[in-house]
Design a protein that fits this description.
The protein has 485 residues and is an alpha+beta fold. The protein has helices spanning 2-7, 10-35, 37-60, 66-80, 116-124, 169-213, 231-283, 287-318, 331-348, 367-382, 443-454, 479-484; strands spanning 82-88, 93-99, 109-110, 113-114, 129-134, 144-153, 156-165, 327-330, 352-357, 362-365, 390-399, 402-409, 457-463, 467-475. The protein folds into four domains: 2-35 and 171-212, no CATH class; 37-167, 2-Layer Sandwich (Beta-Lactamase), CATH 3.30.450; 231-318, Helix Hairpins (Orthogonal Bundle); 327-484, 2-Layer Sandwich (Heat Shock Protein 90). The protein starts with a helix and ends with a helix.
Length: 485
């Protein structure tokens, strides 16, 4: 198990990959140097002998003075380690020759005697050039390359034939092979050292990150990561650190949620039990008192039922287990219904609901779900109205295909740092939980789930001591299309 852990470690794997990469490079170099060396060498020689021969022809048949041409041709022949002749085919006489190889290396002529073999080959071919390779020198196994071409000057034909010796490819290959063994040993040694250093640089920060992240399994969310020069490693550390902070918040919310739900469940259950005992022991014979106590029991039972129903609905919405029926409906009518529903409650507390609604707001969505969102937004505003005791309920066309609904209060507002969390279950700004006077305390969480399921944009704009505006945007259709329905 320990052996497998070492083999599968990042350090060992990175070291292995680096060594494998070095070996691959060496094998590739060996393939090119030893196997492809000869074809490359011969192809280069063919190209060079053609360039050399063409240069000889250009100089020889130029208008320069004879001395200047002779000097240039000897220089060119010496620099290319070659020999060359220019032969007049019409008069069948040698015009001129230049030799940098001597008797042991020149195959096209020897001691001023032209090798008629190449002349005949060039003369009898239909092509304008020949290229030959072989051991054409007598009493020598020296391999040479011969290139000849026909040059047409006015009515005369000249043969320009050059000769370059081939160095022993076996000797070259052996030399490179011996050198390659030494280079391979050096490269492998360096690659082993560099790969060890490289794997250490890469793996150690990640190992430290892993050890620090292990604290999460023990519920310790206070992680401390060292700064790293490698961007990706630093980004990984930052991501885990951010995740730890978010998990810490989630754990805090979970604890609060359990406490809040327990409180919401315990309070009505306690009251139901207490009033049931009072009916049993005290008010059983007193009709008025009994009715009063029974009404309290019924109200508390309804509160429990609403809480359980809201939690169940929220879970279904978040699990996308509730189908949303998208169809055209009159949002203007819904806004008026919402106003009529809450206006008496608001008036009892001295609050004014100012309805500002454009006519014929035709939306596309699930009417019953959007109605629930409206009710939750207005109910939330009634808990946070300001000294002016005014709530604004507004609906209007934001664009041709979008309707925007806003619910504004002028209360204490919400801190900017808290805004992202107000949509969470049972989130409380002041952290001092109090049982909600009405509703289950899940209104904003349910609204969020409904709007996200419906694909509606939503949010809140709030400033401390200036109030808050909760809004959502829902798709609409043209009034002309509505007339056709």
């Amino acid at each position: 198990m320990k052996k497998n852990r070492f083999i599968n470690s990042l350090g060992f794997k990175s070291w292995t990959y680096f060594v494998f990469f070095a070996l691959s490079i060496l094998l590739l170099l060996q393939f090119f140097q030893l196997i492809l060396l000869e074809p490359f060498y011969l192809r280069t020689l063919r190209k060079e002998i053609k360039i050399f021969t063409n240069s000889v022809a250009d100089i020889y048949f130029s208008d320069a003075e004879s001395k200047e041409k002779a000097y240039q041709l000897y220089s060119l022949t010496m620099s290319n380690n070659a020999c060359v002749i220019v032969f007049d085919s019409n008069n069948n006489t040698t015009v001129s020759g230049f030799d940098a190889l001597g008797n042991s290396g020149c195959a096209i002529y020897n001691n001023s005697v032209v090798n008629q073999r190449f002349i005949d080959i060039l003369e009898n071919t239909d092509e304008d050039e020949i290229l030959l390779q072989g051991d054409f020198i007598e009493l020598s196994d020296q391999e040479v390359m011969v290139y000849g071409k026909k040059v047409y000057i006015e009515d005369q034909t000249y043969y320009v034939i050059s000769n370059i010796t081939l160095q022993s490819i076996n000797i070259i290959t052996k030399t490179i092979q011996n050198q390659f063994v030494l280079i391979s040993l050096i490269v492998l040694s360096l690659s082993l050292l560099i790969s060890l250093l490289f794997s250490k640089i890469i793996s150690q920060p990640i190992v430290r990150i892993k050890e620090e992240a292990n604290k999460l399994t023990y519920g310790n969310y206070d992680l401390n990561f060292e700064n790293n020069d490698i961007n990706e490693v630093q980004e990984l550390a930052d991501t885990i650190d951010l995740a730890a902070k978010e998990i810490s918040k989630v754990e805090e919310y979970r604890t609060e949620l359990m406490a809040n739900v327990s409180h919401d469940l315990k309070t009505p259950l306690t009251m139901i039990k207490a009033y049931a005992e009072m009916i049993k022991d005290i008010s059983g014979e007193n009709r008025d008192k009994r009715e009063e106590h029974l009404d309290i029991i019924i109200n508390e039972t309804d509160s429990l039922n609403n809480l359980v129903s809201d939690m169940l609905n929220l879970s279904k919405l978040q699990a996308k287990a509730v189908a949303v029926q998208a169809e055209a409906f009159d949002l203007t009518e819904q806004l008026y219904n919402c106003y009529n529903r809450f206006e008496p409650l608001a008036a009892s507390e001295g609050v004014t609901i100012d309805l500002q609604c454009q006519p014929e707001l035709i939306a596309i969505g699930d009417a019953s779900k959007i109605e629930e969102v409206l009710n939750n937004f207005v109910s939330n505003a009634l808990k946070h109205y300001g000294d002016d005791k005014t709530i604004i309920l507004k609906g209007y066309y934001k664009s041709k295909n979008t309707i925007r609904v806003e619910v504004t209060d002028y209360g204490t507002g919400i801190d900017e740092e808290v805004l992202p969390y107000i949509w969470d279950r049972y989130f409380k700004i002041d952290k001092k939980y109090q049982r909600s006077k009405s509703g289950s305390g899940l209104g904003l969480a349910i609204s969020k789930a409904i709007l996200e399921t419906s694909g509606c944009k939503y949010g809140v704009i709030s400033k401390i001591n200036e109030g808050s505006t909760f809004y959502f945007e829902i798709p609409s259709i043209d009034l002309d299309e509505v007339q056709k329905l």
